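The authors assume throughout that readers already know how a fold can be written as discrete tokens. In essence, backbone conformation is discretised, so a fold becomes a row of integers matching the chain in length. A single example would do more here than another paragraph of explanation. For illustration, here is how one protein appears when written out as sequence plus structure tokens:

…
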Amino acid sequence: MRKTTIGIVLAAVLALSMLAGCGLLNDINQTVDYVNDTAAYVNETTSFVTGAAALAEQAVLNEAAREQLRRKLEEMKASIAEFNKKEPPEIAEAIHKQLLSYNETLQQKLNAYSEQIRGGNWSESLWNGSGIAEAVAPITALLDKIKSLNP
């Protein structure tokens, strides 16, 4: 009887240990996924600035470039909205909060720029004065911190 009780207790302890290990594994997987998704998002914002700057320059005189630029702006706005819905793992909450703040600034700059071009303002200086590249810089600066979260 005593051996049976000890066996049951050991089995219960082993089962609980395995469940705790599964939770830890789940946390690690969630962190890895978050880091990968967030790094991809940061790279997307960096690529956006480079591509949009070139298109903005061409858009002064080229209707096709204007349409491409409008599309790129809308795609970036959608990417921001999608990223903002992410639930960060506990270890990434502070960085995620920073990113949400930076995203809000970027969203405001994108909206203001979009409003200007909807009004027909395609001047060469509009992109440079938009503050979009400056709004992306702090997002890009967080990339190393984000990658350091990887277990």
